[in-house]
Amino acid sequence: MTQIDLLRRHGLFDAKVPRYTSYPPANHFGQSVGADVQCDWIAAIPQGRAVSVYIHIPFCRRLCWFCACRTQGTSTMRPVDAYVDQLLLELAQLRRLAPAGLMMGRLHLGGGTPTILPAKTMARLLRAVFTAFDRADDFEFSVEIDPTDAAPDLLQTLIDFGMNRASIGVQDFAPAVQKAIGRPQSLDQTQSVAQFLRDAGLRSLNVDLLYGLPHQTPDSFRRTLDHVADLCPDRLAIYGYAHVPWMSKRQVMIKDDTLPDAMARFELAGIAHDAMTSQGLRAIGIDHFANPSDRLARADANGTLRRNFQGYTDDQSETLLGLGASAISAFGQGFVQNAVATSAWHDRVGQDGLAGQKGYVLTPQDKVVSQIIADLMCRFAFDRDALLQQFPDQSNLIASARAMLSERFGDAITEDGNLLQLRPEAKPLVRIMARHVDSFIGVSGGYSAAI
Ligand SMILES: C[S@@+](CC[C@H](N)C(=O)[O-])C[C@H]1O[C@@H](n2cnc3c(N)ncnc32)[C@H](O)[C@@H]1O
Ligand code: SF4
């Protein structure tokens, strides 16, 4: 059977499956978890643990048509200033509730466009964050940067506060593609931001690209990949474009008949894979690439790669504290998502100090499913021994998942004792396998057998 036949047989070209940046995915969060539970979980963070902090800035000066992120357009700084004032209140409440001596291992500013903040406002926010939390050893501070909206004084402020990793949005450099996705962005602008960051001594530079965009062709995408190679990124995230106009209304500007079909998307993903690996970058998980000396590649090589809401990460912290509208916090006990609309988040922070609105309490079974899906997504493997060691009283659940994978995906895997692995040519199926685990024993299907 050819690779295409194998992938087609398992439904790759018809499937709509979650990206499993979390298990369960956020659409399974419910109203039974809110600010009360959030307070309890924050207070219960084990002493002496380093936590990760995520701050969401949901504003952009422009709204690109392709974008499915939680963001809103603004042409003035008034709502941005009011938002930062409220973030400081939320931060103060978080600090009051959290155990003393909490250290911050990671800080990530995402959006939207964090670089929309004027330098002074950014400094005000970062001073408050660094006053609230001491930095752990090996602290990492990363920011999502739109190169068309990143003033030099703002970039310098981020560097002065210790930003050591940055992610630049590119998507595609082809003019026809940029026009069709409503995102003009010149090569010069992008190069000059990358150069500024390099000259300032940034440790790791990531570039985001998308395949499956309107009017993208193999030739045009190869040219984009060549331009990106000239930027010498340490990491790349090359995501498949998610066309979800029913969720992200601005995507109605992108006509269905301009989009590459499933086979063409598969070809574009392969072009990206070959271009990046031939330049010596390591392919990581389903959509990332990294220089072998970069921390992400090292985590992949030593088996400690993890998945978080940004994609793949080497961050090992169990606790992620999310601030801002729609931000998600992760704890050992489960997830809490802040109110999604900026106005609702603003009101809740004003009333209660915290804005948790929905979430999910992980059961012991969920934790097993979560680990199985993380192992598949990060390592393309299912290691029965390792799972049994971590969850000794969940042997039935682990055995069921293993039997289902063996039976359903026999032609896509190899099995050697405890270890089940995807064949290299079957790796594109990994999300479908994760989805089967989810429907068979997880929240999407509801494992009901007595365990
Ligand atoms: C929240 S955006 C922030 C980027 C920053 N504002 C910029 O414009 O450069 C982060 C990334 O999400 C990805 N993204 C946004 N919409 C997407 C979609 N519909 N499908 C797949 N990835 C998407 C893009 O690669 C984007 O760079
Ligand atoms: S891609 Fe970036 S700038 Fe464009 S709408 Fe999304 S978050 Fe805003």
Major sheet attributes: 9 strands, mixed
* Arithmetic mean of pLDDT: 95
Shape: globular
- Low-confidence segments, given as residue ranges, are 446-451
| Multimerization status | single chain
Strand pairing plus helix content: what structural class? alpha/beta
How many distinct beta strands?
Answer: 19
* Rg (CA only): 22 Å
Q: Percent helix among the residues?
A: 25-40%
First and last CA, distance: 38 Å
Can you count the helices? 15
Q: What strand line-up does the widest sheet have?
A: 9-10-8-7-6-5-4-1-13
* Strand residue percentage: 15-25%
Which small molecules are bound? S-adenosylmethionine, iron/sulfur cluster
Describe this structure in words.
There is one protein chain. This protein has 451 residues and is α/β, with parallel strands linked by helices. 39% of the residues lie in helices and 21% in strands. The strands form five sheets. It has a nine-stranded mixed beta sheet with strand order 9-10-8-7-6-5-4-1-13, sandwiched between helices. Helix 3 runs parallel beside helix 4 (119-132), helix 8 runs parallel beside helix 9 (262-278) and helix 14 packs across helix 15. The longest helix is centred in the N-terminal third of the chain and has 20 residues, at 78-97. Mean pLDDT is 95; it is low at 446-451.
Task: Give me the secondary-structure topology.
Layout: H1 3-9, H2 35-43, E1 50-57, E2 59-60, E3 72-73, H3 78-97, E4 103-111, H4 119-132, E5 134-145, H5 152-160, E6 165-171, H6 175-181, H7 187-199, E7 204-211, H8 218-230, E8 235-240, H9 262-278, E9 282-284, E10 288-290, H10 295-301, E11 306-308, E12 311-313, E13 320-323, E14 328-331, E15 334-338, H11 342-352, E16 356-361, H12 364-379, E17 381-383, H13 384-390, H14 395-408, E18 413-416, E19 419-422, H15 430-441
Parallel strand pairs: 1-4, 1-13, 2-3, 4-5, 5-6, 6-7, 7-8
Antiparallel strand pairs: 8-10, 9-10, 11-12, 14-15, 15-16, 17-19, 18-19
Helix pairs in contact: 3-4, 3-11, 4-5, 8-9, 12-15, 14-15
This protein binds S-adenosylmethionine and iron/sulfur cluster (SF4).
